[in-house]
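Dear colleagues,

As part of the handover before I leave the project, I'm documenting each prediction I ran so the next person doesn't have to rerun anything. This entry is a single chain, and its sequence is reproduced below.
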Amino acid sequence: MSSPQRPPAEHVERALCVLAHPDDVDFGSAGTVATWTAAGTEVTYLIVTDGDAGGFDDTPREEMPRLRQAEQRAAAAAVGVTDVRFLGYPDGRLELTLDLRRDISRVIRQVRPQRVLTSSPERMYDRIGASHPDHMTVGESTLRAVYPDARNPFAFPELLADEGLDAWAVAEVWLGASPRTDHAVDVTDVVERKFAALESHVTQVAHQPEGQLREFVTGWMRQTAARHRLPEGRLAEAFQVVHTA
């Protein structure tokens, strides 16, 4: 796998992770986030849905959003993230709308990140679970919010007129679960923090036999590291890096 023509910035001051469901960021990116926060990057999570369609037991649906928000905050804390925001859209019913683009643009203008991490809008046919329709919708909505909405002062003018939010240009976007990854992050040294984050999502993972989650995710990261030619025994998360200028 060749390296990207332009490597991502070595360090950014602020990063925003925009994902569909509580736990999405942790399965695909928590190790990467842990490396960023360890290097001093301020990371904000924006979770688009309330996660009410998740879970594997008879927990009442009306209780699930509260539980999953608490789980996501605990997971975020495990990798050094304290700013966790929720848009509260219904789980499993996301559509590409101007309202969603505006809501993501608002947070981009509030946080003013140099880097945004989100899910790929492209379907992975060899790993269909990564391409949940909500993931793809959030990825496309976030890319549209990055360009052109958040940087265009004339897009959603109410964000400036009513909320005082100036336009902001994001320099790079990292797409997770992409069929064309070109950048791998070695997360071997922070993998316990990633697992602490994943295991915080009790409603989503507690049904699995002991050790199965770690075994599965470790194997997945080991394959990713090998595919990107990291040294034997290393673990990695991988992304497609998109430069916006």
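The chain has one domain: 14-243. The chain has eight helices and seven strands.

All the best with the project,
I.
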